[in-house]
Amino acid sequence: MLSDRDLRRFVDQGVHLNLDTRSALRRYAAIPGHLPTVGLRLDPQVRVGWGEDQQTRNARTSYGGSKFGFPLDQVEEMVEYARGLGLVVDTLHMHVGWGVQAGALPQLVDLWRRFAMLGAQIPSVSTLNVGGGLGVPHRPEDEPLSVAAWAGALADSLSAFLQTPGKSLACEPGTFLVAPAGALIVEVNTVEDRPSGRWVGVDAGHNINVYAAHYGIPLVILPLLPPREGPAMRVHLAGNINEANDVFARDLLLPPVLEGDLLVLYPCGAYGASMASDHCMRGGVVQRLL
Ligand SMILES: Cc1ncc(COP(=O)(O)O)c(C=O)c1O
Questions:
Q1: In which order are the strands placed within the sheet that holds 220-223?
Q2: Is 26 exposed, middle or buried (0-12, 13-18, 19+ CB in 10 A)?
């Protein structure tokens, strides 16, 4: 959903784009100075990654059949459409989702094989871009697809395409690189017993780390210092934003925690940080980032 203003900015910078609407192709082609080549983003039509299992099912994090990408069976039509606008399609792109688990590999291999066949059918296509998707474990039962398995399966599924001279593979890993790149340290400011349980409140919320509230992805939550003696407490850990969903964890087992203690929340990079907001005027995060 790019504006002309966005597109002009990319043209000024000489950025190669993967576009996924006729509208963007048409408007990009009309901007003087655009590159002669363009990529097409395709809808993988498979649903893998976070948001696809029952526990985290959440249409907001699903990619297959979502708002992104041309349907696979429209590729040739879109290549022709681009050609009519004076654009040569040199890249086919798709992004399957994020936090892809090892168990999704057979679906991915099947998809990548079809992707390679599509690429081979269009002589002007020199790059297949497989997007991102690699993740980090969030829950004990998580088994993220490993880099080795991902790379091996890609090399295997795309081999016929990649062995042709001049053809290449591109990828866009994000979460895998930066999600584990930091931890969020918060201070406990409230310990309150209510009929719904013991609520522990901290001085940060989903304005700073959205994993739990927005995606339903649990965080690792631990005391910063060696745990206090005493029986574990079962608590709900709440953030300081005026939204009922601003809860980092429910029914979390913690060592005894007192007001003033510090907790570590992990991970906090990638979406945790980049989706920061100034909601409730907390933190001025966005202004600081800008
Ligand atoms: C087109 C595209 N490429 C790459 C990424 C990064 O994906 P990840 O962080 O899951 O590796 C995203 C994330 O939304 C994306 O939309």
A1: 220-223, 262-266, 184-194, 197-202, 233-238, 247-254
A2: middle
Tell me the two tokens of residue 110: 């099947």
Closest atom of ligand 1 relative to the 41 alpha carbon: 1
Residue 97: per-residue pLDDT:
84
Q: Are 287 and 276 in contact (CB under 8 A)?
A: no
- Type of residue at 135: G
Q: What is the mean pLDDT of the chain?
A: 90
Rounded CA-CA distance 139/141 in Å is 5
- Residue 277 has a pLDDT of 83
CA dihedral (189, 194, 199, 203) in degrees, to 10, reads: -30
Neighbours of 119 (CB within 10 A): 23
Q: Whose CA is nearest to atom 7 of ligand 1?
A: 132
Is the pLDDT at 58 greater than 70? The verdict is no
Phi, psi (deg, nearest 5) at residue 257: -125, 135
Pocket flag, ligand 1, residue 174 (CB < 6 Å):
yes
State residue 83's pLDDT score: 98
Atom of ligand 1 nearest to the CA of 97: 10
* pLDDT for residue 285: 58
Arithmetic mean of pLDDT, 160-184? 91
Q: Report yes or no: 27 and 80 within 8 Å, Cβ to Cβ.
A: no
Q: Tell which residue, 207, 277, 193, 289, has the closest CA to residue 248.
A: 207
Residue 124 has pLDDT above 70, yes or no: yes
Q: How far apart are CA 94 and CA 104, in angstroms?
A: 16
Q: Which two tokens stand for residue 67?
A: 């708002």
Task: Considering only CA atoms, give the Rg of the chain.
Answer: 23
Which amino acid is located at 179 in the chain?
A
Q: Among 98, 100, 101, 154, which residue has the most ligand 1 atoms within 8 Å of its CB, making it the best to mutate?
A: 98
pLDDT in tens, 215-264: 888 899 999 999 899 999 999 999 999 999 999 999 999 999 999 999 99
